[in-house]
């Protein structure tokens, strides 16, 4: 992808690939969308794909593959032990990260499980710039706690800071000084997920790692969203402008003791694993792989996916490939800003994030504004996003609601999947909804599981507001879908 300028002056992201396999989509009428949302208990996780036009739930495992990845899948070596595919994947990781050892796992959270089971004990503290849901769950399950040290800008919805994912290095140093005895490792999430796909700078990653090592603390990189972070370092960090993507990757990897990733994101396939420099660390974690994942040369992954991942990792070193996501997200975010819609700025990786708190300030946080907005955006356009607000939190031990720091609706842009006209369609329907935002009301639970309620919970509107949106849609769009 490259950003080009039209003769009129308009700048647009231009695809440097062509589409060769397509999947038919349905755009069902607004009446059906209201019905489908009711059937799904107002939870976008429970919608059926046949009712969805643009699936912006996640970028996980749904990125488009290249022709070279598909071709590589055909030569996968399907053997339980000693597979040549495993050797090819390990060699690619060695080439890019300089790591000697690789432990395969079926996806990112499985890698987190292995690392946490090896290092986290009751009373452990794990510092990180920001948590991810599955990461935190594994650490707290084992009696550890997470200490978030992202810079103040990180949780500000509107900002001009190009690296909102950066550590607050002073707070990191203070914590390590006091508690290093209880800190088995620190975790660096580059780029971040829950604060809007925001990156860290190369210099912040290097300084944070140096601080950790000064106190004898291991450094762990969550590289699931590294491809976006590499793009932002290359385009936003003056000191990295003349470095190649390979050089930036190596500079980061050299500072890490452990690098793990979700291959559903990094490498445009499905799977995951852990890359390690040091033999002792590798041996410490090794036996958990055959016990929980699969033998050491596949770790629960299909060899076809591993083969595709090896090629996908190589393609991650190509700016034309990794710029597609961030440039589409920037385009969508800027068009929404131009129409007055409140969004997270600056645009990051992963997706475009709507700020539900300002979109529908009349919906109280106890009635789940981000969840309500997710339901409303689906009704307005058949677009499925993911609630990233209070519904995604867990209740306190006493049963009271834990109100989230931010109420966001994440609209993920899986890589190379959507076209610019689809992005423009999404912008139009969201802007229309913003003009009719007074119609949107809140939600309440009718079935609330005690854990992971955002996956399975069912809710209902507190008033007939979904039908009101349907009526307004018909008034303004006539017979159109
Ligand atoms: N780390 C980060 C930063 C992630 O974004 C994810 C997954 C994981 C770890 C876990 O990896 O899904 O392969 O087990 N994020 C997905 C998402 C679920 O939709 O953002 P996984």
Descriptive overview:
With 481 residues, the protein is an alpha/beta fold. It has 2 domains: 187 residues, Aspartate Aminotransferase, domain 1, CATH 3.90.1150; 250 residues, Aspartate Aminotransferase, domain 2 (3-Layer(aba) Sandwich). It has a 5-stranded mixed β-sheet, with helices on both faces. A 3-stranded antiparallel β-sheet has the order 11-14-13. α1 runs antiparallel to α16 and α16 crosses α17. The mean pLDDT is 96. β7, α7 and β8 form a beta-alpha-beta unit. The protein is globular. Helices cover 40% and strands 14% of the residues. The chain is built from 19 helices and 16 strands. Ligand F0G binds next to α4.
Short account of what is shown:
This protein is of the alpha/beta class and 481 residues long.
What is the topological layout?
Layout: E1 2-5, E2 11-14, H1 30-39, E3 54-55, H2 67-73, H3 84-97, E4 101-105, H4 108-119, E5 125-128, H5 133-141, E6 145-148, H6 169-179, E7 185-189, H7 202-214, E8 218-222, H8 226-236, H9 245-254, E9 258-262, E10 272-276, H10 279-286, H11 288-292, H12 303-315, H13 319-322, H14 324-338, E11 351-355, H15 356-359, H16 369-381, E12 383-384, E13 386-388, E14 408-412, H17 420-435, E15 443-447, H18 453-456, E16 458-461, H19 465-477
Parallel strand pairs: 3-12, 5-6, 7-8, 8-9
Antiparallel strand pairs: 1-2, 4-10, 9-10, 11-14, 13-14, 15-16
Helix pairs in contact: 1-16, 2-12, 3-12, 4-5, 6-7, 14-17, 16-17, 16-19
The structure holds ligand F0G.
Residues 58, 60, 107-109, 132, 134, 189, 193, 222, 224-225, 262, 264, 272 line the site of ligand F0G.
